[in-house]
Amino acid sequence: MIKLTHIFKSFDGGRSYAVKDLSLSVGKGETLVLLGSSGCGKTTTLKMINRLIEPTQGIIEVGGKDVMDYDPVDLRRQIGYVFQGIGLFPHMTIEQNVEIVPRLLGWSIRSRQERMRELLDLVGLPAESFAQRFPDELSGGQQQRVGVARALAANPTYLLMDEPFGALDALTREALQQELLNLKKQLKKTIVFVTHDLHEALLIGDRIAILHEGNLEQIGTKKDILDTPATQFVQDLFTIKRPGTLT
Amino acid sequence: MSLDAVVTYVVERLPELWLRTGEHLMLTGCSTLAAMFIGIPLGILIFRTTWLRGPLMGVIGILQTIPSLAMLVFLLALLKKIGVLPALIALTLYALLPIARNTLTGLEEVSSEVMEAAQGIGMKEYQQLMMVRIPLAAPVIVAGIRTAAVVGVGIATLSAFIGAGGLGQFINRGLALANTNLILLGAIPAALLAVVVDFSIGAFEWGLRPERKKDKKGSLRRLMRRLAFVLPVAIVLISMLTYFTKPGWISKTAAQLKSGNKVVRIGTKNFTEQIILGEMMAQLIETKTDLIVERRFNLGGTMICHGALVNGEIDLYAEYTGTGLTAILKHPVIPDPEEALNHVTRAYHERFDAQWLKPFGFNNTYALTVREADAKKNQWNRISDLVNMAMEMRAGFTAEFAERPDGYPGLRRIYGLRFGEVRDFDPALMYEAVVKGEVDVVCAFATDGRIAAYHLVPLKDDLNFFPPYHAAPVIRENILKTHPKLGDVLSLFGGLIDNATMQRLNFEVDGKKRKTAEMVEEFLKAKGIL
After folding, report:
1. What is the predicted ipTM?
2. Considering only CA atoms, which of B426, B459, B453 is closest in space to residue B440?
């Protein structure tokens, strides 16, 4: 379980806030989508969960423990992270990329290899033909699958995904979204998923948190949000632009 | 020179070429390696410690702007040693800037997205550095090493000035003897060496890149990658092999060294007359005693020779009374030759534990020298004749003459001479310059063979300004004590060579391009002392 309590974040010493008084929680095995346009604070919120950014004020708990009580390195190794713009290591093979977290955790070579094969199969990139390649030899969609495989490698309880499909073309994106839905069912991870794509949010999220200029406009299931929009902003979002995209 | 002649010329010198190339590679290789071990950690340090960046890069940058020769001389003074050590230190300092700077740039240029990923998946700081940042910066770092090595090959040619050997030795000797072939014998291999070094480090970097799936196993490409990887290692090994297997007379000397014989090290400055005198003393000692002579010729100037003598790096070289008096002892000019010799003899004994032996006989004083045609046209006979026209004249002086109190500064004071323009020249190039009309007056040496050969006229020193410059062997008293016979042998030279003879001998080498050793042997035999 991930729980945020009255989180504030300012990057300029309090003149303005990227995130204002945000409280929310993500239940075990649940997928929460943070939806919003760029600059709404969604990525900042995500990064605060694994301490890539630290909140100015407020408490974040992961598994019932304040993240500030974790060693940041240990914390991050327990949380899978899929980066916006992929973030694979260009000098490592696909195999090395997927194995990196288990390697950092000191797994034996054999169990690393086993895990790597399993994961590459899971994301549809058979190890025989892909393990020895380098990221720049793969298409964008294939690279992002590797990104997902890398995030899952150490079998983390939590998965943070920062617009993982944002840079992909529409067809590839849809395919990957479907695959993610399947994975979700198989793996039962607690997932926080950031996107600016309404359609994607409605498709993937068990619940959706709508952020606007650092404020939480509404949090709820697809049905809650569509039937009873909490604010004017949320209502406009789904009447004017549906099923479009925030930019 | 016909092709045949070129081949013979090179083949004759092949053993020495081999040795010098080895030395050159050794100098460049060791200094680049040392600079890597210092520069890369330094680059990493200033990457992580931002406030250190400005000051450290500033210091390294300043080191880079020190002229190479000045740096060598400075280190010489600091270490009180000639030879490989100061050369290596200087080369290392020069190699530091490109390596440290490229390390810093390479580390900075790694994309922040990748670094965030490294942090986000839970790498510790040193893991981020070692597993991601440094590998990704490697191509830029290697490019810096490459620059350093190529520049190093160039600068290493200068280390011959302080007796560290290398291909610069040919260039130096060529300059000293006005012998273009010798210069090229050093310069061409040095240029080739730079290309080879550049290529092999480039290949190394190529071999370092991760292997792609498309490089199939067993393919030619793959084999080449292996080779590329080995290339620089091979070059270093070859250079070490070269360095330690000194061929020809060098190996003979080494063998004799091991047999327990004592060695006399003879130095010379970097011009023809010095080399002839050095060779004469060497041959005489080799014939008349059972001592082994080590020739440390072509050291870059008076102060370097003197420093080497005082610090026991050489045992013996030929010095001129006037130079000893004014340049080394900083004593005012003593016009009387006898008195001047007595003074330096006394002072050297007291201050440097060195002994002046009997002078060779000639007086190699400075002579302001002009073209014969100009002299006739303007009726110039004495230095005083120049005074009125000096402002319209261009003078070409050696760097030493331009600064020494018994050189241009003194001339200005005593004669009131002020030339319109003064340019510094290497001694060998100075004569060319006056012949070609690039300058109008030069500070020739009275015994230089080129004065007659190039139709130049020395002007009479009518105010007796130039001090006497009688050449004599200067020797460390220590070695004279262990081998008293040396003094007797060297005194055979006393009064043997007058000005005309020295001019002729110089011209044999400068003008007729004869080999010094051969010519010296002939001369000494003709004089009946060999």
Report:
1. 0.87
2. B459
